[in-house]
Amino acid sequence: MKIKLFDLLEYNQHANQLTIDLLVENALISPPKANELFSHIINAHHVWNARIHGKRNFFSIWQKHSPEVFEEMNDENYLVSKKILETIELDRIITYKNTSGEQFENSLSDILFHIINHSTYHRGQIMLKMREVNIEVPYTDYIIYKRKNAKT
C-alpha cells in the first residue's frame, strides 16, 4: 500500500506540474476560475499536511494565489507529503478539525488518498475551464502517466 501511495503521490506531482505549466503559459488568457481552482488544490493539500502534523495551516482553503507561486507551493506540499509517507505509519489515525470546527478521525492512508483524489477532481475542472476558452490542455490521466513512465 505504501508503495502505491508513493506512486500516486508522484503522479499527483507530475499532473500538478503539467497544470501549473499550462496556467503559467496562458496566464493572460486563462479564466480566473482556473487559477482559483488550482489555488484551492494547493491550499487544501497544505491544510491536510498541517492537520497530519497537528499544526496550524498558513493558507485558507479558498485563498487565491498567482500562477507565479504555484510551482513553489506545489513542490513544498509534495516534499512534506513525501516525508509524511516515509515516516508515519499508514494506519495511524489522525484527529483533526474541518474548516467548520468539527472534529474527525481518519487513517493517514485515507487522508493521503483523499489529497490525490481531490487534486484529480479539481484538475479536471481546470481543464474544462481552459477548453472553454479554446486552450489546448495536456493529458493528466493516471494511465497516461503510467504509460509514459513505464519501467522497461
Automatic annotation (TrEMBL):
Annotated binding of a divalent metal cation, by residue: H40, H118, H122
Segments crossing the lipid bilayer? none
Molecular-function GO terms, alphabetical: metal ion binding
PANTHER family with a match to the protein in the record: DAMAGE-INDUCIBLE PROTEIN DINB (PTHR37302:SF3), SLR1116 PROTEIN (PTHR37302)
Q: Where is the signal peptide?
A: none
In its UniProt entry, the species of origin is given as Mariniradius saccharolyticus AK6
**What protein does this entry describe?**
DinB family protein
- What Gene3D superfamilies does this protein's entry cite? dinb family like domain
Question: According to its UniProt record, which protein family does this protein belong to?
Answer: Belongs to the DinB family.
Q: Which UniProt keywords apply?
A: Metal-binding
One Pfam family name is DinB
